[in-house]
From TrEMBL:
<protein>
    <submittedName>
        <fullName>NAD(P)H nitroreductase</fullName>
    </submittedName>
</protein>
<dbReference type="InterPro" id="IPR000415">
    <property type="entry name" value="Nitroreductase-like"/>
</dbReference>
<dbReference type="InterPro" id="IPR050627">
    <property type="entry name" value="Nitroreductase/BluB"/>
</dbReference>
Length: 310
């Protein structure tokens, strides 16, 4: 359906509602806290544009992380609008001549998705938590809920199980986290774009590897988000699914961590079956130990700095 056709059936949504929703979308996680997005508010539309000036080129030469991060913000926006009783339709890559224009969200004239609306209240409470999780296992029913939220975004969520796989993955993520620090331009870019504590870096995300990885040491689950292919739309959808899973985990009371390094979507050995699709992102979910302190919110860019002229 064309943008014009969708606008014809759109319901009312003030620019103030859209701006409030964007402010909530700014709470989305992004790799190295880069926040690589710009937004334009139109007539019952919100456009999402990549902010390529926020790309950490030494670590993300193909914009993979940038697009994944923007996908998470896109889902946060839809959730925030649903929480304001606005149903939406999303057009991904609506302008082939402008690769920075990643999506347009249109407000349409029917009831919002109840699952998306139910997540709006937890946007302000979600945190990336790098601490060691407690031994309490995650219930299978909770994992089923997280899988359903990923599937609603066009992605699959697969558990990474087994001591051997977890140990190999931990080693790969640790090595991947240390290697890029020697890349040309890394230090300068990190100082410019990640002055605050980064979200999503893998080395700090996983707890120190015990000699024997088991639920008695850490009851968390490692989960992999996969998509059907690996195009820009697939990466957008993977980011949307990551947002959905993280928010759903927060609503369930689970702590969570988003993991992303260049090698993280190709863990060594024990790959998922090819029928499972293209690995995109890793997440960790689990329960914090009793008495764990609440984490402060990570600073975000002000709304005025991410709005494009109408």
């Amino acid at each position: 359906m064309s943008t014009a056709a969708v606008r014809a059936s759109a319901g009312p949504a003030s620019s103030e509602v859209a701006r409030r929703a964007i402010e909530q979308a700014l709470r989305a996680p992004s790799t190295r806290n880069s926040q690589p997005w710009k937004w334009r508010v139109g007539d019952r539309t919100v456009e999402l544009h990549a902010d390529d000036t926020r790309q950490v080129a030494a670590l993300d030469p193909d914009r993979r992380d940038l697009v994944l991060s923007c996908g998470a913000a896109l889902h946060h926006l839809r959730v925030a609008l649903a929480g304001s009783d606005c149903a939406t339709r999303t057009l991904r890559l609506p302008d082939p001549g402008n690769p920075a224009h990643l999506a347009t969200v249109l407000v349409v004239g029917h009831a919002p998705d109840p699952d998306e609306a139910s997540l709006a209240a937890v946007i302000e409470h979600r945190r990336t938590d790098r601490r060691r999780f407690g031994p309490r296992p995650v219930r299978s029913a909770h994992l089923d809920t997280l899988r359903a939220h990923a599937a609603a975004c066009g992605a699959a969520l697969l558990p990474v199980t087994g001591e051997t796989v977890r140990a190999r993955l931990h080693a790969a993520l640790t090595e991947a986290a240390s290697r890029p620090r020697h890349a040309i331009g890394f230090s300068d870019e990190l100082v410019v774009w990640a002055p605050d504590p980064p979200e999503g870096d893998a080395a700090a995300d996983l707890p120190p590897a015990p000699r024997r990885i088991s639920r008695t040491a850490d009851g968390s689950y490692l989960l992999m988000i996969t998509t059907a292919a690996d195009g820009i739309i697939d990466r957008l959808r993977a980011g949307e699914a990551a947002s959905a899973v993280l928010l759903a985990a927060t609503r369930l009371g689970l702590a969570s961590t988003l993991l992303r390094q260049p090698e993280a979507h190709h863990p060594p050995g024990d790959h998922p079956p090819r029928t499972c699709g293209q690995p995109q992102l890793m997440l960790r979910v689990g329960w914090l130990p009793d008495g764990a302190a609440a984490l402060p919110a990570t600073p975000r860019r002000p709304l005025s700095s991410v709005l494009l002229p109408a």
